Amino acid sequence: SPRLRCLYSTVRIALPILLDTDGSVTVKYHGESLPTTVVIDQKGTIVRVIVGISPRGESPLRREIEKLLQ
Fold first, then answer.
1. Can you tell me the distance from the alpha carbon of 33 to that of 26, in angstroms, rounded to the nearest whole number?
2. Cis peptide bond upstream of 16, omega within 30
3. What is the pTM of this model?
4. Residues 32-69, buried b or exposed e (16+ Cβ, 10 A)?
5. Which end of the chain is more exposed for a tag (fewer CB within 10 A), N or C?
6. Are 49 and 36 in contact (CB under 8 A)?
7. Nearest to 29 by CA among 43, 21, 37
8. Looking at beta carbons, which pairs linking 59-65 to residues 24 or more positions away fall under 8 Å?
9. What are phi and psi of 44, to 5 degrees?
10. Residue 34 half-sphere exposure, CB side, CA atoms within 13 Å?
């Protein structure tokens, strides 16, 4: 979608983003609200689910991802 591409380039997100157009991923992972961020490690294991937007911004998510990349 053009709007998503614009947001993606503006925010400069360097991670893959899944656009769940048919809702199948939401059902599979029991998503209850938007946004829902699912952090998956290199083995495919879900290590954290963040529902909603943190008032602290991206810091908790960034720390979680940096920990996984070490």
1. 9
2. no
3. 0.58
4. eeeebbebeeeeeeeeeeeeeeeeeeeeebeeebeeee
5. C
6. yes
7. 37
8. 61/37, 64/39, 65/15, 65/39
9. 90, 10
10. 6
Q: Give the Å distances, CA to CA, from 1 to 8, 19, 41, 48, 54.
A: 11, 9, 27, 27, 25
**What is residue 12's predicted lDDT score, i.e. its pLDDT?**
67
| Residue 1, C-beta contacts closer than 8 angstroms, at least 6 positions apart | 19
Q: What are phi and psi of 37, to 5 degrees?
A: -105, 125
Q: What is the pLDDT of residues 4-51, one digit of tens each?
A: 677 667 766 667 778 888 989 888 877 778 778 888 888 988 888 888
